[in-house]
Every structure is written in C-alpha cells, then in structure tokens.
Write a sequence for this structure.
C-alpha cells in the first residue's frame, strides 16, 4: 500500500478569513467545534464531502486545504479514525 | 471534554457503581435466611437497576443544566464514526459472551448462574462500548 499522510492548512485559512473561529467554521459545514479541532490537529480525517465543504467556505480549491504528503513524515497528520 | 465524552464517562461510572457490588453479592449467593429461591437475586437486580437509573438520571440532569445548548449539538460524522466503532467492538464481546452462556454453560451450570453470566457479558459489552467512545475522544482531543 502507498504510504503517506494528510496535512491541512485550516488554521492558516481561518486566520486569513478574519480569524474565523473553529465553532463558526463547524457551524457552517455541520460539524462540531471539537471535530474541527481534531481535523486541524490531523487527528481525524474528514469525509470527502466535509473536506469539500471546508474548501467551499474558504472559497479555495480542495488542494489548498488538504495536502497529501507521500513521504508520510509530516508531524501533524497521524489519522486516528 | 466534549458533552458526548462526559455522557460516556457517566455511563461507565453508573455501571461500575451499580454492577460492581451486584456481581460481588451475586457471587456470594443467597443467605440461609432466604425464604424464596428467586427473591434474593431478583430483588438485588431490581435495586441495582434502580440505582443505575438514578445515577444516570441525576447525571444527565446535571450535565444538561451545566452545558449550554450549543455545547451539546447533534451527532456529526466524527461522532457517528466513533459510535460505529464502539458498537462494533462491543458486538464482538457480546456475541462471544452469548455463545459461552447459551451454548456451553447449560451443560455445566443452572439457574441464576447462567442468568448472572448473561448479565455479566451484557455489562461487559456496554463497558467496552463506552470505553472505546472515551478512548476515541481522548485520542482525538487536541
């Protein structure tokens, strides 16, 4: 199996969008604040639909929110669920 | 700590408080004063069930009053994934226990020993269920 991990720029994108809170982002895409925190920390991998919703909120392509690191060495991307 | 994690902790505590003493007393068996053969275990189980319901009721009330509405939202996809995983784990415990109780114990035990063994495996499955919920939320907490 191809080894790798997922990283994301949600924290940066929140900052760039008027320091949007985790709760507000969660409210806009139907997730809880805790789930947004878990996604941001790389501890939960969201569904494809949720990922697209996040990208839509920030008005950027999906690839600008989530990145695939083929080496799997990124520090904050360990997926638990 | 999220609202759902608190609920899982509450359920674990209620089971420990109620069923811990129950299994200890059930293992001791009925006393010599026992007037009816089923009165002791039935009464004990009724008391334990009431105690558990009281703990859960009081706990739910406390958590509900202590948490604003926005802190106890509907289930989202991560909550459902955790729930799915915890129920799957509990299912294997329950099915293993029921096979043991239903297929093997009738050849070696009788009556309340079998009933208590069935209750034990149901409680064990519930403990696994809520433990996986708590562990999952803990692992994903930032």
């Amino acid at each position: 199996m191809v080894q790798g991990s997922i990283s994301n720029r949600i924290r940066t994108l929140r900052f760039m969008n008027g320091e949007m809170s985790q709760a507000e982002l969660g409210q806009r895409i139907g997730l809880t604040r805790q789930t947004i925190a878990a996604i941001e920390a790389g501890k939960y991998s969201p569904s494809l639909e949720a990922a697209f919703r996040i990208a839509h909120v920030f008005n950027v392509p999906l690839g600008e929110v989530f990145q695939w690191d083929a080496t799997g060495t990124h520090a904050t991307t360990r997926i638990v669920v | 700590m999220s609202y759902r994690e608190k609920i899982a902790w509450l359920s674990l505590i209620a089971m420990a408080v109620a069923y811990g003493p129950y299994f200890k007393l059930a293992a001791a068996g009925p006393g010599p004063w026992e007037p009816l053969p089923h009165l002791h275990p039935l009464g004990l189980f009724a008391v334990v069930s009431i105690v558990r319901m009281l703990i859960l009721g009081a706990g739910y009330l406390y958590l509900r009053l202590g948490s604003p509405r926005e802190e106890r939202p509907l289930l989202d996809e991560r909550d459902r994934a955790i729930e799915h995983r915890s129920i799957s784990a509990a299912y294997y415990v329950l099915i293993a226990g029921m096979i043991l109780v239903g297929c093997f114990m009738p050849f070696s035990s009788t009556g309340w020993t079998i009933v208590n063994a069935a209750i034990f495996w149901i409680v064990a499955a519930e403990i696994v269920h809520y433990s996986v919920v708590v562990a999952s939320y803990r692992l994903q907490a930032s």
Summary: The two ends of chain A are 18 Å apart (CA to CA). Chain A has one domain: 5-69. The mean pLDDT of chain A is 86. DSSP finds five helices and two strands in chain A.
